[in-house]
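Section: Multi-chain targets

For targets with more than one molecule, the full set of components is provided together so that the structure can be written out for the assembly as a whole rather than chain by chain. Components appear in the order listed by the source. The example entry contains two components.
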Amino acid sequence: MDPSELKSVLAIVMAGGQGERLYPLSKERAKPAVPFGGIYRIIDFTLSNCVNSGVRRVYVLTQYRSISLQRHINLAWNKLRYEFGEFICTVPPQKRNVEHWYLGTADAIFQNIYTLEVERPERVLILSGDHVYRMDYSHMIRTHQDNKAELTVACMEVDRESARRFGVMQVDDNHRVIGFWEKPNDPPTLPGKPDRCLVSMGVYLFETPVLVRRTIEDSKRDTAHDFGKNIIPEMVDANRVFAFPFQAPEGEVAYWRDIGTLDAYWEANMDLTHVTPSFNLYDRNWPVHTYHAGHPPAKTVFNEDDPDGRVGTAIDSLISAGCIISGGRVENSILSPRVRIESHAHVTESVLFDGVVIGKGCRVHRTIIDKNIIVPDGAIIGMDREQDSSKFTVTPGGITIIPKSMPLTEMAAV
Amino acid sequence: MSKILLVEDDSHQQLLYQEELSAEGYEVFCASTGKEAIEQAEKVQPDLVVMDISMPGMDGIEAMGRILGQDNKIPVILNTAYASYKDNFMSWSADAYVIKSSDLTELKTTISKVLGQPKGDKE
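Its structure, encoded as tokens over all components, is:
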């Protein structure tokens, strides 16, 4: 693809949602800033897609609890050079004309029309900062141009039951969208596939003038100010709206996750520990970038021979830099940087954030532990749902969450 | 009687527009700056704003944005000597764009057309 065509695309990443569904992980940080896969934040996947696709003019719209997101983007994504016309830049609400915060995704764009006026891109790629996927946007941009589309919506097939959580569309033989419904109770299925639906991934490519006109019109009405609920359904009859079927690179499974629940978050992390994970972090043609703080290498120590001896091991796990597994055992888990596992501790199917310490003899199972939590010696977490529920969030899927800043010193040691 | 808020920094033009529009049967309120326009819009609650763009201090595009920020249903006609603002995305919030002329026919037709339109979902 002609690089100048990619330069005419401005990406806007929506990173201003409340992130209620990931509470308490989103208690003190925006959802796009929630750690994922040990060393990443959720937004790194979308920003890596941008950079790897050649879309290198990116605004990230922030809003709630943005300090940690802002800091992460400053540290991790100051890689592009503005003087070459490339940037990733965070934009908090400017409140140029209104006193309120963003009322919806369409209002977020409306309140930033000034930014579009300054940049004057030909097209705007609207992305969500809280999805985990790998996608080369340049394919979508080319298809959009070939179709002479005014709006292209990336889509994928899901089963009918899951489709109710998404924007569902109907397309004709040329992928032109002929119907769009946000979170329908009775989603229309694909021709010849009575259990499959085509759903929107929340990735939109707009011709800029159409986007500006549509969001201005929407701003004058009493709507939900939402792309899925208002703008797209209204455009289907009046504009050239096309679907872009999301495809995986050859030989891979199409991977896209809207990390919508704590259980989905845990599962997506667990997937990374498999021998052949659905999302390949190790593909050098598609690196996922993030911030590296310069921690020392991960270390495992102790290999004592006697039956009660200390053995420091990690199996089927992602162990980040700076971790020390000191005579404990880690299985099927994700350890962020600077995690310490003390002697005879046993951690399974868990996600431990930056700086967590698991004390001597602890038993931790199917638990997500937030940053810098010190689990006292002998504590047992994730083995007894009822007991955990009295102190912590326990998800419907049975995952225990220890939130940030929770003191655990009074936990009964066994 | 429809209320029009006329925003125009040139006093001669302001007087001309005021007379002509009053003669058409509109109740005309005037403002000479963007800031005054915002205050007047809140006080008068006009049915329509006729807004000059090029003014000292706050320009008409910014004033329009703020007025719409207070009430997103007020129709605005941008009335300017310059066609160049028409490309500015910020000006697209206006319901119409009229190039100033000594003949006010186009402005008057546009006013009656815009006032005849339904104003968003509330109407």
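Chain B has a mean pLDDT of 93.
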